[in-house]
Design goal:
The model has no long low-confidence stretch (mean pLDDT 93). The chain has a domain at 65-149. The protein is mainly α and 152 residues long. Helices cover 70% and strands 0% of the residues. The N and C termini lie far apart (42 Å).
Length: 152
C-alpha cells in the first residue's frame, strides 16, 4: 500500500504534469525574451541594452549573441509551450541558460540574492530544460499530435 501511495501514478497524471511544467517554464522564458525585446519596464533598452551589457562582459559578437538569446527565449519559449520541436528547442534553451550561468552570472556565486546575482535561477532553468531534452514533451503537445495523428 505504501509503495502504491508513494511511487505509482496513472499515465494521464504524468502527461498532465509534463504539460503544466512545460507551459509554466515556457511562459517564464517567453517573458525573458519579451524583456530583451524591450516590451517590459525592467529592460526598456531592449536588445540594444542587452548588446551593451554583453559588450561590457567581453562577450564575443555581442549583437549576434544578443539576438540569438532573445529569439531563443521568445520564439523558443512559444514553441516550447506548444510542444513543437520540443527536444530541439529544449536543447537550445538549455545551452542558452548554461551561457547565462557561465557568463551572465560569473562571479555571483550560487544564490540569486547575492550581489551580483548568482546563477541559481539559470542553473535550475537549465536543468528543467535538459529534462525535456531527455524525456520529450509528453502526450499533450503538438509533437505528439503531429506524430500520432499526422500520419493517419
Amino acid at each position: 500500500m505504501l509503495e502504491t501511495l508513494l511511487l505509482s501514478y496513472p499515465d494521464w497524471l504524468l502527461q498532465f504534469a509534463l504539460f503544466v511544467v512545460r507551459v509554466a517554464l515556457g511562459g517564464c522564458i517567453v517573458v525573458h525574451g519579451l524583456g530583451k525585446l524591450g516590451f517590459l519596464k525592467s529592460n526598456p533598452a531592449g536588445v540594444k541594452g542587452f548588446v551593451g551589457w554583453l559588450e561590457s562582459m567581453g562577450m564575443p559578437y555581442p549583437r549576434l549573441n544578443a539576438w540569438a538569446a532573445t529569439l531563443t527565449e521568445f520564439l523558443g519559449g512559444i514553441l516550447f509551450i506548444l510542444g513543437l520541436g520540443t527536444r530541439f528547442v529544449a536543447l537550445a534553451l538549455t545551452i542558452n541558460m548554461l551561457v547565462a550561468v557561465i557568463k551572465g552570472h560569473k562571479g555571483g556565486g550560487y544564490l540569486i540574492l547575492n550581489n551580483p546575482p548568482g546563477a541559481e535561477y539559470a542553473i535550475n532553468l537549465a536543468i528543467l530544460f535538459a529534462m525535456f531534452v531527455l524525456i520529450g514533451p509528453g502526450a499533450i503537445s503538438l509533437d505528439y499530435y503531429l506524430i500520432h495523428h499526422g500520419s493517419a
